[in-house]
């Protein structure tokens, strides 16, 4: 719903508003997961809570390295990889050693397939439709 509000903005303001919205959501999500890890529910949540923060930092660094045209490029695309890796490690840590040993290679394969499918689905359903709208020259 908030993203729809971003699309209602004038073309020149969309990219900055979308970046601000995603930044706020990433920080809030990371803080919520980190706080959950501190409250004693499970310290394993801390690893998962680091994923949105790592993604935000990587995206900010990619913006600094990118050419500044606002178009999608290799740096911005590659910036999502560290966050996905930290998230995948977070899911594995959340499962615990006992479950990983019991599940073996099959469990690791299923988790890898799920993470890959979630990444591809996010790209197809969210990024691909919004990329032309957000990258429209002003």
Counting DSSP E segments of at least 2 residues, the number of strands comes to 0
Instruction: Estimate the helix proportion, in percent.
Output: over 70%
Shape: globular
- Stretches with pLDDT under 50, minimum 5 residues: none
Radius of gyration: 17 Å
Residues in β-strands, percent = under 5%
Instruction: Tell me the major beta sheet.
Output: none
Provide the residue-averaged pLDDT. Answer: 75
**What is the distance, rounded to the nearest whole angstrom, between the alpha carbons of the first and last residues?**
23 Å
Written account of the structure:
The protein is mainly α and 138 residues long. The chain is built from six helices and no strands. Helix 2 (11-38) packs antiparallel against helix 3 and helix 5 packs antiparallel against helix 6.
